[in-house]
Write a structure and sequence with these properties.
- With 136 residues, this protein is of the alpha+beta class.
- The protein has one domain: Roll (2,3-Dihydroxybiphenyl 1,2-Dioxygenase, domain 1).
- It contains three helices and eight strands.
- Strand 2 and strand 3 form a beta hairpin.
- The protein binds cobalt (II) ion.
- Cobalt (II) ion binds next to strand 1 and strand 5.
């Protein structure tokens, strides 16, 4: 069902400082930068092989990533698996008894369709599935 790891999500306080590390320090190409209002984040994608690192900085303390940072500090936030058909994948995951945060896909970065699974059902790993927009 999962084609590959699409990205790992990293929660950061300061997105420019994080870009310095990943782009200038690690030599990854900055592929995309976007404010995703619906998720309350400023997000940056950097290329690494076929996948990405997704840096996430909260737009405010009352956003999901803002609350995550207050509780856990900066660091790994989620892992995202690529799927060809997110509707069918969500159906199969729900049928397997795995708890969903998003029962319907929503629009993610770069016009992808994404959904999150509850870490209660995934051994504590916040898990995202992503159907990239065409030509990704
Ligand atoms: Co993500």
């Amino acid at each position: 069902m999962f084609g590959r790891i699409d990205h790992i999500g990293v929660a950061v306080e300061d997105i420019d400082a994080a870009i310095e590390l990943y782009r200038d320090g690690f030599g990854m190409e900055l592929a995309h930068r976007e404010t995703v209002e619906s998720q309350g984040v400023e997000a940056v994608l950097l290329d690494v092989g076929d996948g990405h690192v997704e840096l996430l900085a909260p737009l405010g303390p009352d956003t999901p990533v803002g609350k995550y940072l207050a509780k856990n500090g900066t660091g790994l936030h989620h892992v995202a698996y690529a799927v060809d058909d997110i509707d069918s994948a969500l159906e199969k995951i729900a049928a397997a008894g795995i708890q969903l945060i998003d029962s319907e896909p929503r629009v993610g970065i770069r016009d992808s369709r994404v959904a999150f699974l509850h870490p209660r059902s995934t051994g504590g790993v916040l898990t995202e599935i992503v159907e990239p927009a065409g030509g990704h």
